[in-house]
Specification:
With 414 residues, the chain is an alpha/beta fold. The chain is built from twelve helices and 13 strands. It has a five-stranded mixed beta sheet with strand order 6-5-4-7-8, with helices on both faces. Strands 11-10-9-12-13 form a five-stranded mixed beta sheet. Strand 4 and strand 5 form a beta hairpin. It is globular. About 4% of the residues have low confidence.
Length: 414
C-alpha cells in the first residue's frame, strides 16, 4: 500500500470530493474539509494549472451572490481499457465520466500467434495515444480472459491452456505494454470488472450492495458488498457457475458433476434439445432448423415464441436451476439489486419471466422482493470499461476516500 503524505492527501481529498460531489464551490470545499479558504485556493489553482479541474458555472448563494462551481475536466482525463476473450481484443479509450471516445475490436485468429496479438494491441494503443495526444492518459487496464472455460473452444489452437495464457497476460503482456508506452499498466480478473463497470458508469451507479450475473456459455457472478467489489483471496470470487444445484452425470469443466454451469448454461440447454430431437421428439425446430448448423439462441427463441413444448421444457428447467443458484447468492449476500446479462437474455420473455420467478421462489421471504433488472446481452462491452475504471480509481486513490460517497450530495454544491 502506498501511503499519502499530508500534501498528497489534501490534493486527492479535493479531487475525490469534486469527482463525487461536483460541481461544487470553493466555499463548500473549505466547509467540508475544514481547510482555510486560502489553502483550498492553493490546491485548486495547482489542479487547474494541471488542467485536471475546470470551472463549470455558478450557483446562487444568497443575497444575489454567485459562487463559481468546479468540476473535473472529464474530457481531458482518460484511460485505456483492453479486454481479451476467445476471439476478440476490444480496446477502448474513455474519459473519467465513462464516455467512450474510441473503441477498436480486433479479431484473434486461431491460426495466429501470441506475437501477432501483441502487435495488434500495441498498434491499436499507439493509434489511440496519437489521436488523443492532447489528453492526459492515466494508464492501461487489461482484462484477462479469466476462468471462463466455456468461451475458449474456438481458440484452443492459439493458446494451449487458459491458465498459461492468464499467466502470460499478467506477466509478459503487462511488462511489454509498460515498456512500450511508459504508462501504468494493471491486469484485472474479468470476474470483478462487470460489477465495477456497472457501479462506475452503468445501472448500479450509487448502489452499495448488488450482484451482476453473466448468463451465457458459463455462469459468472461479480458483486459489491458495502460499497466495494469482492475479489476473494485469489481474485476469482463469485464462481457461482461451479456451485452444485443438480444431481446428474454431466461433468463440469471444473471436474465436478451437477454444477449449475454444466446443467443450466446455454450449452446444456442446447445439448438437451438436440438429444431430444435425435430421439424423434416433435418440435417446431424441425420446420426451420438445419441440423448441420449449430443450434443458436435465436433458433430456440423462435421456437419459444411459437409455444414449442420441447424448448419450453428445457429452458424452464434451466431457469429453475439458475434461479436456485442465484437465490442462494441473494440469501447469502442480501443485495439491493440483481443485474442479469449475457447472451441467454436473448431467449426472450419466457426465459426472463421464468428465471425471475425461480429466483423469488427460492429466496428467503425477507429477500423475495429484491430488485431484478435485465441489462444488455453483451458482457464484453463492459469489461474494458471496468478495466479503465480501476485505472481511474488508482489515480484518484479512491480507496483512501471511500467515506466521501456518504456525504450529503444535495447540499454540497451550495
Amino acid at each position: 500500500m502506498n501511503f499519502l503524505n499530508y500534501k498528497e492527501y489534501r490534493r486527492y481529498l479535493v479531487l475525490n470530493l469534486i469527482h463525487s460531489l461536483g460541481p461544487i464551490s470553493r466555499t463548500k470545499l473549505a466547509e467540508i474539509t475544514d481547510y482555510r479558504p486560502a489553502a483550498i485556493g492553493d490546491i485548486i489553482n495547482e489542479l487547474m494549472d494541471e488542467n485536471l479541474l475546470v470551472e463549470t458555472g455558478s450557483a446562487a448563494s444568497g443575497q444575489g451572490r454567485h459562487r463559481t462551481l468546479l468540476g473535473l475536466n472529464s474530457d481531458y482525463i482518460c484511460a485505456i481499457g483492453v479486454s481479451i476473450n476467445a476471439s476478440t481484443i476490444i480496446t477502448n479509450l474513455l474519459t473519467i465520466d465513462g464516455t467512450v471516445r474510441k473503441s477498436v475490436s480486433n479479431r484473434i485468429h486461431a491460426s495466429g500467434s501470441v506475437d501477432e496479438l501483441v502487435r495488434q494491441t500495441i498498434e491499436t494503443i499507439q493509434d489511440m495515444i496519437a489521436q488523443f495526444s492532447n489528453r492526459k492518459i492515466l494508464g492501461i487496464g487489461v482484462c484477462d480472459p479469466g476462468p471462463a472455460p466455456g468461451h475458449w473452444d474456438e481458440a484452443g489452437d492459439l493458446f494451449p491452456t487458459l491458465i498459461a495464457f492468464n499467466d502470460w497476460v499478467n506477466h509478459d503482456l503487462k511488462a511489454i505494454l509498460q515498456s512500450q508506452f511508459h504508462l501504468p499498466v494493471a491486469v484485472f480478473a474479468r470476474g470483478i470488472l462487470t460489477s465495477i463497470a456497472e457501479e462506475k458508469f452503468g445501472a448500479a451507479k450509487g448502489l452499495k450492495d448488488f450482484i451482476c450475473l453473466d448468463l451465457c456459455n458459463g455462469v459468472g457472478m461479480s458483486f459489491y458488498v458495502n460499497g466495494g467489489v469482492v475479489r476473494g483471496a485469489n481474485n476469482v470470487a463469485g464462481q457461482i457457475g461451479d456451485t452444485v444445484v443438480h444431481t446428474n452425470e454431466r461433468i463440469c469443466s471444473c471436474g465436478k458433476v451437477g454444477c449449475v454451469e454444466a446443467s443450466a448454461a446455454f450449452p446444456a440447454v442446447r445439448a438437451n434439445i438436440l438429444g431430444s430431437l435425435e430421439r424423434g421428439v416433435f418440435s417446431v425446430l424441425n420446420s426451420y432448423y438445419d441440423s448441420k448448423q449449430e443450434l443458436t439462441v435465436q433458433d430456440v427463441r423462435r421456437a419459444l415464441d411459437s409455444g414449442d413444448k420441447l424448448c419450453s421444457h428445457y429452458v424452464k428447467e434451466s431457469t429453475q436451476l439458475l434461479g436456485l443458484a442465484i437465490a442462494n447468492a441473494v440469501n447469502l449476500l442480501n443485495p439491493q439489486c440483481v443485474f442479469l446479462h449475457g447472451y441467454m437474455i436473448g431467449l426472450g420473455d419466457f426465459f426472463i419471466k421464468n428465471l425471475e420467478s425461480s429466483i423469488r421462489e427460492n429466496c428467503m421471504m425477507v429477500f423475495s422482493n429484491v430488485d431484478i433488472k435485465v441489462l444488455s446481452p453483451s458482457l464484453e462491452d463492459d469489461l474494458p470499461l471496468g478495466a479503465a475504471a480501476v485505472i481511474f480509481d488508482d489515480f484518484l486513490h479512491t480507496d483512501d476516500f471511500k467515506w466521501v460517497k456518504s456525504l450529503n450530495v444535495e447540499s454540497s454544491s451550495s
